[in-house]
Amino acid sequence: MKYILIISLTFVFSFSSCFDEDKFENTRQGNFEALWKIMDEHYCFFSYKDVDWNEVHTRYAARISENMTNDALFTVLGEMLAEVKDGHVNLVASHDVARYSKWYDDYPYNFDTKIQDNYLGTDYGIASGLKYKILDDNIGYIYYGSFSSGIGDGNLSQVFDRFAVCDGVILDVRNNGGGELTNSEKLASYFFNDKTLVAYMLHKTGKGHDDFSKPYEIYVEPANGLRFQKKVVVLTNRRCYSAANDFVNMMRYAPNAILMGDKTGGGSGMPFSSELPNGWSVRFSASPILDAEKKQIEFGIDPNISQDMTDEDMAKGLDTMIEKAREVLKANI
Fold first, then answer.
1. How confident is the model at residue 225 (pLDDT cuts 50, 70, 90)?
2. End-to-end CA distance of the chain
3. Cβ proximity of 273 and 231 under 8 Å
4. Cα 85 from chain centroid (whole Å)
5. Rounded Cα–Cα distance for residues 135 and 248 (Å)
6. Residue 308: CB partners within 8 Å, gap ≥ 6?
7. Cα R_g (the chain), whole angstroms
8. What are the residue boundaries of the Tail specific protease domain, all occurrences included (predicted)?
9. Are 245 and 266 in contact (CB under 8 A)?
10. Which of 6, 46, 236, 237 has the least CB density, counted as fewest CB within 10 Å?
11. Do residues 176 and 240 touch, judged by C-beta distance below 8 A?
């Protein structure tokens, strides 16, 4: 989003200077303290997630020894970061990346590429990162697997021009782990006719856990020219994360959109990176994004219609969620 990018760039320049204030030795203890303090001063969800970061320090400091190996240190630091339960928080070394994945591990997968092939076939269209096809019941189907894959007005205008004859559209973002917010805003803009408030963003203004700026409004501007005016069902699962989570939040406010599937995985914090004395980098959520009612969406967004894929349908090569979406769209003609 243009407005987000302006705020974020301002935030980066002011934020990066903060890391020069404290110097830590390149020792086991020094790297531990550096990581703990970077998170303490700049991570944005401590209060919302009710994490006692001081207690975490006490518990993990007892596990740090100058005699421990690099691998052991990496394991302990990764486990400490997992205390915040955030998929945007990673420790990156040359040999591994510490990551938190329980936000989707304990949920149904609700996506199968082999079954999806039964719907796409081999004659689907490709427009940059989009795969699309008009199904045999005159429902348009779009799959967008990553917001890291760029899309432009040329791609989207062509797709929606072809879908003008359709009775509705299924927009499938299952397993979309995020990417560029500009791409998610671009796609969403084709389903809005008016400038619409969809979210707020805050950024850290101090070292305290609750030191934030005022909320800055985030709007979706309608696309110029052709826009889709019929019903659209957005299919989601737990692996919809980060920019995909933000896209689903935007589509909550689109006038003809219906969210269907599983709760999204969340990941509403804008990530930022820093570096430890030993060269390992840490990535973490630094600026929270709220919905238009100023409610947190960090832990995901519930669908309008809950629907899982069933074993019975999967055994027949059917995607329960696509079939339910077709049924809903046909009922709304």
1. confident
2. 32
3. no
4. 14
5. 23
6. 108, 110, 261, 262, 320, 321
7. 22
8. 108-308
9. yes
10. 6
11. yes
Is the separation of the CB atoms in 103 and 297 below 8 Å? no
User: In what order do the strands lie in the sheet containing 130-134?
Assistant: 125-127, 130-134, 139-144, 168-172, 232-236, 257-261, 305-306
In DSSP terms, 270 is beta-bridged to 287
pTM for the model = 0.91
- Domains, the chain, in order of start with CATH, read 2-105 (3.30.750.44), 113-197+225-268+296-331 (3.90.226.10)
Q: Collect all residues with Cβ–Cβ distance below 8 Å to 238 and sequence separation of at least 6.
A: 103, 104, 107, 108, 110, 262, 263, 264, 265, 300
The one-letter code for the residue type at 137 is D
Lowest mean pLDDT among 4-8, 95-99, 208-212: 4-8
Tell me the average pLDDT of the chain: 93
Whether the per-residue pLDDT at 1 is higher than 90: the answer is no
* Greatest Cα-to-Cα distance within the chain, rounded to the nearest angstrom: 69
Alpha-carbon torsion angle 185, 186, 191, 195, nearest 10: 60
Of the candidates 299, 329, 324, 331, the one whose C-alpha atom is nearest the C-alpha of residue 309 is 324
